[in-house]
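Input for the complex:
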Amino acid sequence: MGILAIAEATQTMGVANCDAQSTAALWLIYLVSCNLPLTMAWSTVLNKDQFNYFQDSLAVSAANPQGAAQAAADFTTCTADQASMNAATGFQTTMVQNEKSLVKNLGNAMDQVYDVESPLAQLLKQTTNLILGFAS
Amino acid sequence: MTTAAGQFTTDFASLQTDSEAFDAAQVQLNGGTDPYTGAPVVGDKSTYSTEFQAAFNSINPQLVFMALIFVFSGAGFNELDDGLGVNGAALQVQGDLTKCGNDLENMTLPSSSDPNYNSPTLVIDVAQDSDLMLDALNNVTNDSGTDTWSQYLQNAIGSDPCSDLSGQYLIIRQDIYYSGDTNPNANNNPDGPNYNPTAYGTGTDPVPVPGQGSSRTYYFDPTCPVTPSDPNEYMISNFGDLQTYMSTQGDPCQANEASKSFTDAFNMNTSTTQSVQAATNEVITNDTNTIKTFQSFDSDVMHSLSDVVRAAIQNQTKT
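Predicted:
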């Protein structure tokens, strides 16, 4: 009876563990689908910042000394946006890393789920041998 | 195809059934009364008394000795087997708990083709299902007053993990506020005894307005305006908007923080159930190995007995 209960429970645990892994995978897909448009949006901003900086840098000349100040302002904007992008996307990247750790742990736990079956299988084998030994 | 909300209902029902089965297995182990029929449960150990009575009364020291060995080893074997049954039932409960947590997490991750993707329904479902989990983990009597099974649930996973899981579900639950919330124990429920308006806003209106009152401690309110572009949407009203906001610059409605709060709680939940399962697995492996030892002992004794009998027969034959 005990062995049957364990076998049934092992099945439930296996299903629950797979379920947890698929949920984690689903969440990763969800997060990536959030992260891509966010990264794209920030990349567009950064491209524009860099273009402005490049354009204003070229415009600096003796005839246009105030252009240097404009270019410096562009550079500051670009640096600030880069930091904001890192903060915004980095937050999600951290979540991805945490989820990856969870999936790895779930994979290890899956091994343990079926390790429980090992001594039970040995017990059944021993029981069979015992019966066969007395029957012969 | 079953929805995540429908799957939760199924798995929660299994949690109840398996918690009751755990209790029945415990009764079998300890002997006592069947929790459902009220009939006394006869332990396996007592069945030996009649089978070996003749051997005990035979006055033959060899037979009495052998009978004693078999009674003790057999009783030990059965006790351990019943123990395996209890641990198996506990594993079932732990698996159900994991599945319920997964179902809740799945509800927060609807696909864009889900009819409730942009609907507050799923947010309310998550809040109400979290309430069910909190009631079960805290052994709170539900409306029908028939949830004695939550005590069995606590016995199956232990009080500390129960408390940990409860704290994790509370984090999820407290991220959601909605007026009309019927759970009297939710701290976010303005109609409940635990509600503290100063924690969530000021005055008679508990909904904080940007720039006014105390800072909020929750992210979701299904009754907020649902148009993402609406400047008055200061709370996340549905999981579709959560995804939209997470994809948008400026972190509207603190969507990233909201997602992280949920994700961290769900991940801790999974880790807790996995840890409990690992501990139970250790016990099962140990018990199984002990049963093997008992069985080997029985086998050796029986072989020895066979040898003695064989030698006696041979001696008898010679004479």
